[in-house]
Amino acid sequence: MINYRHRGSISALVVCLVISAIAVLGISYDGGRVVSRYVALSDVAQNAARVGAQHVVGIREGNPRISRSASSSAVKNFLHSEDVSGDFDMDSRRVTVRVSAVVPMKILGIIGLHWRTVSVTRSALLSDQ
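^ thats the sequence. predicted structure below, dont judge the formating
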């Protein structure tokens, strides 16, 4: 005899399993893309800060400091060459670079998560040692 009370329960189970599979696939694929972009942006930000901190003046006078004009030009050129948007600030001993990028979600866009903004801040410090 057929039990009509549980009719359609298999369909509901299949729908739940498909949604769960899409969520796991989306988190692993799109999450991996976000982490990969974060690592790449981290490298760019750190290298831009290092490039900026290399422009040192005043060594012979015993007052080493970062040249603002040369450093800002170098950081701008480096970020432009890497095709990354960002900003930076500096003082006489430190260069700090902030970069960000938008990572579009390929799979999680199906459930409404269309993009993720990744931001990284890195600094380089002028050292006497």
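Residues 43 and 103 are 17 Å apart (CA to CA).
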